[in-house]
């Protein structure tokens, strides 16, 4: 089987590795944009990275500007876990494809990211949103989600090589 044939026959560990790779790359790229835009729009690059810690610590994480293990560390771990969750759906889409091309990798990444944005920003209760939407402009949020999609697609394309 070539690396980009459907993954139905791929070992489970290979599929898990694909989720870990694509989710982590998407997480890192989007976190980089969060920090970049946080530095431009808030008192600190850490501010939007602290926000996802609201899942555990409540609204205080939304207002935390400085770097801390409690808010920044936990916020990044929540962001990573969420990225892995959405990467699993992306990998399921990839597994159903007869043939993966750059166009399908990008289209699937865009579709999953759009779904993630709708769920994150419109459907879940306020406490379960990423929180960084309270710290960044809409334009920056588009950049964060675009970086996330790029990470998913890029990981797929790297595996294709």
Structural class: mainly alpha
Number of strands: 0
* Average pLDDT rating: 93
Order of helices and strands: HHHHHH
Radius of gyration: 16 Å
> Helical region count?
6
Helix content: 55-70%
Distance between the termini: 14 Å
Q: What does the main sheet amount to?
A: none
Low-confidence residue ranges: 1-7
Instruction: Tell me the fraction of residues in β-strands, as a range.
Output: under 5%
From the spread of the alpha carbons, the general shape counts as: elongated
Q: Domains counted in the coordinates: how many?
A: 1
Structure description:
The chain is mainly α. The chain is 69% helix and 0% strand. The chain is built from six helices and no strands. Helix 1 packs across helix 4 (69-96), helix 1 (12-41) runs antiparallel to helix 6 and helix 5 runs antiparallel to helix 6 (138-160).
Topology (SSEs and partners):
Layout: H1 12-41, H2 47-50, H3 54-57, H4 69-96, H5 102-123, H6 138-160
Helix pairs in contact: 1-4, 1-6, 4-5, 5-6
Compact overview of the structure:
With 161 residues, this protein is mainly α.
């Amino acid at each position: 089987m070539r690396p980009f044939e459907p993954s139905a026959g791929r070992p489970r560990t290979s599929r898990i590795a694909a989720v870990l790779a694509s989710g982590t790359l998407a997480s890192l790229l989007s976190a980089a944009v969060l920090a970049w835009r946080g530095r431009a729009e808030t008192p600190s690059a850490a501010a939007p990275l602290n926000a996802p810690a609201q899942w555990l610590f409540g609204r205080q994480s939304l207002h935390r500007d400085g770097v801390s293990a409690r808010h920044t560390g936990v916020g990044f771990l929540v962001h990573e876990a969420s990225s892995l969750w959405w990467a699993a759906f992306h990998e399921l889409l990839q597994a159903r494809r007869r043939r993966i091309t750059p166009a399908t990798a990008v289209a699937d990444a865009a579709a999953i990211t759009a779904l993630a944005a709708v769920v994150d920003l419109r459907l879940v209760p306020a406490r379960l949103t990423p929180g960084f939407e309270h710290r960044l402009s809409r334009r920056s949020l588009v950049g964060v989600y675009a970086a996330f999609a790029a990470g998913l697609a890029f990981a797929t394309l790297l595996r294709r090589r």
